[in-house]
Amino acid sequence: MANGITRRGFLTHYAAVAAGALAAPTVLPSAVFGADGDVAPSDRITLGIIGMGKMCNGHLGGLIGKRSVQIVALCDVESIRLERCKERVNKAYSERLGKGYKGCDTYEDFRDLLARPDIDAVFIATPTNWHAVMSIEACKAGKDVYCEKPLSLSIREGRAVVEAARRYNRVFQTGSQQRSDYAFRFASELVRNGMIGDVESIHINVGGPPGPCYLPAEPTPKTLNWDLWVGPAPMRPYNKALCPLDDYKSWPRWRYYRGYGGGGMTDWGAHHFDIAQWAMGMDEAGPVEILPPECSEQKRLTYIYPNGARMYHGGAKGGAGVELFGTKGRIGVNRGGFLETDPGELKRIKWGPDDVRLYESRNHIENWLSCIRTRRQPICHAEVGCRSITVCHLGNMAYHLKRPLKWDPGAERFVDDLAADRFIGRPMRAPWRV
């Protein structure tokens, strides 16, 4: 193991940290990283990154370029891409920080990275089967956390992440970055200010539920620790569709298989259902009934909210990913600044001092980093991530069970339905648990 850190040492360390969780980033001596003209070394947030796959490869350049951050450790279960990312970080920092730069460390096991007391925060970009375990262990170890969406692979896991973030007083950001996009925020403010009247229906365009994994067995690459990749998920033989090793040319398909991901429902659903929840002011609530297509008059998966609004899986028109209909108008919104309103003048509204304004973040990662310094809640904290992914999981359950479900969002249990309650959690492969 890098730096000789053992798993036993990790357990001993984070037990001590948990007893006195850090309230602010570690202050390091200026000699550690050398000179930086913009930010004093002692003021930098020290960052560890877990999961160097295609998603994080896209984020890495932006993180390297932030002078308020120092990436000190990377972790991945595949050695080739881990070394490639290490070289990228070291090259950039060597040029910027000069001969005082000591180099970025690498780890195969995330527990060894979390055991380092000099790391303030971690950025988690692994497959979903690992999100809850890693997030909780990071909180216990006194690290602030940015975890890519979907937050969890089950409702129970999501709630466990919320409880850990609260217990250990961590700044936690869920990677549902559409909340940091102007078009989505403005569309949600239009709804909150009653500009389309009472919301009657919402259409959400995302993919469907996951399916069983019947991929054939293939030889496991020697550079990959397959047991650690699978982690808490059901063990199965390696297949390159789950973890491709082709220099980021392919998107991995693990998200479409039950046990590893939640299909398009949790992948893009963690974005678009999240915006619907935000627009309706449901960040601490959710739907009360879920109808599978077989039981819906629209022949679409249908969510019914306490205010009577119905949300449908699919049916958004004209390029919208989220389309909201109210008693006085309509809004369609999507990425790339797409925003349609009916009446059209809604797009040109200027807010007054008495209007509802939502949390403004212009950059999702910057919002997290800023909140690490101020100890303020970020725009998509753990409770938001949990409630939004719960909507996605509820839809997958309705698809799977093929019958109506009544949900109590306060208790986070189904109403008089013990059979459905069995699906709130999922079994985890030993020794992993939440």
Secondary-structure map:
Layout: H1 7-19, E1 45-50, H2 54-64, E2 69-75, H3 79-97, E3 105-107, H4 110-114, E4 121-124, H5 131-140, E5 144-147, H6 155-167, E6 172-174, H7 182-192, E7 199-204, H8 226-230, H9 263-267, H10 269-280, E8 289-291, E9 302-304, E10 310-313, E11 322-326, E12 330-334, E13 338-342, H11 364-374, H12 382-401, E14 405-408, E15 413-414, H13 418-421
Parallel strand pairs: 1-2, 1-4, 2-3, 4-5, 5-6, 7-10
Antiparallel strand pairs: 7-11, 8-9, 8-14, 9-10, 11-12, 12-13, 14-15
Structural summary, described in words:
The chain is α/β, with parallel strands linked by helices. It has three domains: 2-126, Rossmann fold (3-Layer(aba) Sandwich); 178-209 and 265-358 and 382-414, Dihydrodipicolinate Reductase, domain 2 (2-Layer Sandwich); 211-260, no CATH class. Helix content is 32%, strand content 15%. The chain has helices at 7-19, 54-64, 79-97, 110-114, 131-140, 155-167, 182-192, 226-230, 263-267, 269-280, 364-374, 382-401, 418-421; strands at 45-50, 69-75, 105-107, 121-124, 144-147, 172-174, 199-204, 289-291, 302-304, 310-313, 322-326, 330-334, 338-342, 405-408, 413-414. Strands 13-12-11-7-10-9-8-14-15 form a nine-stranded mixed beta sheet. It has a six-stranded parallel beta sheet with strand order 3-2-1-4-5-6, sandwiched between helices. The radius of gyration is 22 Å and the shape is globular.
Sum up the structure in keywords.
434 residues, alpha/beta, Rossmann fold, Dihydrodipicolinate Reductase, domain 2, nine-stranded mixed β-sheet, 15% strand
